[in-house]
Amino acid sequence: MSNPQPLEEEVYDMSGARLALTLCVTKARKGSEADLDALERMFQQLGFESTMKRNPTAQQFQEELENFQQAMDARDDFISCAFVVLMAHGLEGRLKGEDEKMVELENLFEVLNNKNCRALRAKPKVYIVQACRGEHRDPGETVSGDNIVMVAKDSPQTIPTYTDTLHIYSTVEGYIAYRHDKEGSCFIQTLVDVFTERKGPILELLTEVTRRMAEAELIQEGKARKVNPEIQSTLRKRLYLQ
Fold first, then answer.
1. 58 with 131: CB under 8 angstroms?
2. Strand ranges across the sheet with 102-104
3. What's a single GO BP term from this record (predicted)?
4. Which of 22, 90, 137, 163 could potentially form a cystine with 85 if both were Cys, beta carbons 3.0 to 4.6 Å apart?
């Protein structure tokens, strides 16, 4: 038996413009150019209008995102979704700009929420964050073989401020994110491979990214390390990129 097709109201309308903004600190981050190349290839294949900015300062992270929001709200055409890729050194909740100053991730995320960005209201907003979230390192562990609808009649339809957002972090809270000097980061390279090779709803694709990363063994400082991404979703519908 084939799976029934999801109903139209269960799937985001991806027929309009797809926009992507990548802000990447390449300074003192060897291998980040390989990640930028991979992302450019992915966005091209998935039909995104892609903008990439290298070496933003902390203030420019904020300004570039606000410019992105204002440009979207000024457009007359239908916008389907936006991807924002943020790549830098970081700590939990913060990114380090090219000027060594820190910017709060929460401030960046707020720019495109349903309150502040009309063009993306009720549309998917996907944030991909390739950055450390702390200093912890994971050696790994051995494994043994063993919708509620409450809408009053005649009430106006509203939407929560923070829905339709997907945050994809390269690592879990408190842990290091790894990057190879030549090949780029395990996270970005794996994500691009899965997003360009496979079809399906994005959360399903991200499960595959997590599986591949969990199976990978990274050698860092001469020791085997494990790393996995963390996905936080308030999407209300299925999001298909292919």
1. no
2. 90-91, 94-96, 102-104
3. positive regulation of neuron apoptotic process
4. 22
- Domains of the chain: residue spans and CATH: 12-140+147-233 (3.40.50.1460)
Is there a contact between 77 and 17 (Cβ–Cβ < 8 Å)? yes
Give every strand in the sheet of 49-54, ordered side by side: 49-54, 17-24, 79-87, 125-130, 165-169, 230-233
Instruction: Report percent pLDDT > 90 for the chain.
Output: 79
Percent helix, percent strand, percent coil in the chain, to nearest 5? 30, 25, 45
% of the chain surpassing 70 pLDDT: 92
| 170-189 mean pLDDT | 92
- 186 has catalytic annotation: no
Give me the catalytic one of 24, 81, 117, 132.
132
Q: Exactly one of 24, 81, 89, 117 is catalytic; which is it?
A: 89
**Mean pLDDT rounded to a whole number for the chain:** 92
